[in-house]
Amino acid sequence: MPPAPAVPDGPAPEAVAPDARVPQAAAPGIRVPEILTPRAAAPEVLVPAGATPGTPPALELELLVHGVGGATPEEMLDDPRTVRVTGDGTAAVFRRSEDVDAEDRPTDYRDKPIPEAYVWCNLTSGNGIRALWLLLLPFMVVNLAHWMRPASDGHPRILRLYGVLVRLVALSLTFLLVGAACEVALDLTAWQCGGSTTCAGRKSWLGFLSTAHGGWWSQPGRRIALAALVPAALTGLLWYLSHRTWSAYESQQPLPAAPDDTEGAASGPALGRPGFWYGRRLVARLRAAHTAAGFLTVAAALAVTTARYDRSAAHTVPDVLGWALQGALAAGGIVVVWVVCRRGRTESRFDAALDRALVTLLPATALAALLLSVLYAGWSRPGWTSAGRLGGADRAFGLLTLAQLVLILTLGAVAFFLHRGAPVARSAMRGLGGPAVAMLACALGGVMTGGVAQRVADWLDGSATPGMSTRPAEGVAGPPVLLTWQASVIPPLLCVLLLLALRYGVRTWHTRGSLAARVEADYPGENPDPVRTRRIALARAAASLTDLAPRMLAVLSGATLALGGVALLGAHLYDEVPGRAAKGTPSAVEAFAHTSQALGSWLVGFGFLLFVTWGRRAYRDPKARRTIGILWDVGTFWPRAAHPFAPPCYAERAVPDLTWRMATWTERTGGRLVISGHSQGSVLSAAALWQLPRRTRRRVALLTYGAPLERLYGRWFPAHFGPDCLRHLHDEVACWRNLWRHTDPIGGPVRVDPGAGRQPVDHDALLDPLAHGRTRAHPLPAPVLGHSDYQADPAFAVERDKLLDRLPETALPRQDRAGRRAGG
Q1: Which residue from 347, 354, 422, 348 is spatially nearest to 638, judged by alpha carbons?
Q2: Do residues 82 and 94 touch, judged by C-beta distance below 8 A?
Q3: Are 683 and 677 in contact (CB under 8 A)?
Q4: pLDDT for the residue 131
Q5: Distance (Å, rounded) from C-alpha 287 to C-alpha 240?
Q6: Strand, helix or coil for residue 509
Q7: Is Iron-sulfur among the key words of this record (predicted)?
Q8: Average pLDDT, integer, range 179-190
Q9: pTM for this prediction
């Protein structure tokens, strides 16, 4: 009597929603395989060993996931004829045209897996306009600081404090960005240049604002009220981009968790929790708070300046209105800070709720306050004239910079405490990576703010130097002194970078010499060529520089912190533009600061032009667009947990895509699957595996190559890719193999202890190049591949086949793959 039919060990029925497995419609000209279309009857159940000889074998699928920089499906599948089987123009799964109906012909794939390619490069580099995301770089960097917290054993309140501090730093960057826009539009353009007959006369487009014309707009309050449209429009644009990109990229719902997996996910790695890749509620709250913060910043710039004049002019009613409006704005600021601190991410469960009242009312109320401020500032005040800088700007930027320094130092203390409680040996900077990155985000924001403000002041003042005119009516006073000092720190920072580059360049040169003997030992039986040996050794030495990145960041962030303190102190001690000589010859400090400020101003202006030029080139040149996309492949993997205006997280689309594909295919076919990830694709593959139901995860093999899982993510993000997390992944999947090279600057070993009786995860380092010189197998010099073309190594196919052989059987018994091929 034959045994009962075996039911494929797939995810529980409730783990995959039926309507999500079946696409509603296929794109024109795209053939959808049978596994993606509804069937009238139940799917065929595979018959186990001992059944009739005509029973088809179990299918095998190799799901390829590319890495940074992207790839075409033709390149990944090594075939010019590819077909999209599921997905859209942004991210999709492709097959070779001959493999589209592979599930209908299982006997044709008895000794080979079905290759599939998941292409996600358009999530980061598909549109040339996305090159302008470079201007949001500080927001992206501070968002990384949230995820770089140290691993912790308990201390939930300290963990919450870490997240609150990072979110406050992110909020300060929004204040800084909008404040910079106010400085350029309200202070430099409307207040200073509009109030100067000489400056307004040089700019014809500012003629209607000039006091010389005596028109309706000549009053200072009306000029700054009109200029407030610029920062207000910038805030609205950031809100729109954040909302639109979230709807386009991050609104994909993850695979529903099976009931028996919920408890295990809550206690396992964070990336396996049901709500990790769906942060709608927090992003919406932060978007509302940061949008309100932007509007309130513009309103405060108008109200404080106008109220100061009303107090000096002894106008009773306007003075009372000014105090009331400033009080309302202060209360609004407190509410914004409370909203930012009140709630963090919800990861333990799938949370689709939305605080609609808060999300709607907070920005609307702030916008109403801005409109009231515009009306208040625009009221007629015939005796008001503008002179010098806009009142309160120096103090506002000084307090904001001081608050950032205090937040960074506090964040460093919290990170040190967390790391000391649960130290991870290879954590970058001993757990201080997050504070260091947050410091760089503030530095980027400060440098961009100071440099752009100084550059605009130079442009408005023509050939004169801002702040140097002895008659304010003939020129502009320039930006606040602190912004000038922030621009002046750029040359010293560049000197630090240059010294670091020289230091590690010399180190690489010396390391190359010490590696020569080891390189020759890796190629026994060949006649070594000294020139070739040095070239290979140099590639290995250059690749090892990645491991020194924590030291580089420590030096750079420390120098940034010190120079930021110097800029703050200099702005406090020197209340005039550096280098301005009120009496006699300027001091050495003033002269140095003035020279550094001038260089920094031009460098930032040049950098801004590079941003615009690069963006225009990326709009026209796909290669340049792909280069810019690489930046976001690394920086936007993580969800927006700290700053809602950061570039969108592509993993919130890619991870659900991969999870749904693996779960539905294994359930429909009962086949076995190996997911093969290169570089950043290995990180996406690991994240998708954590999201799979446990029953499905134990039937999937993982092949990684050029993987930064431990070398970069494990060191910089120890709470999410630390040793315990990678060990958990190894224990949960059926089998895992990792390929790496000494010449790879990104990938490396994952350093997972396999435990007794289990095969190691890391393969021995692959030879690169495959041959030292000319051999029978390689008559021409083999290239040094570094991070690319892992599939060209013979070990790739061997290890993939071994993984498939180690997967648990679901249907017919398998022979040894090599023996089966030998038998025909």
Answers
A1: 347
A2: yes
A3: yes
A4: 59
A5: 10
A6: helix
A7: no
A8: 91
A9: 0.86
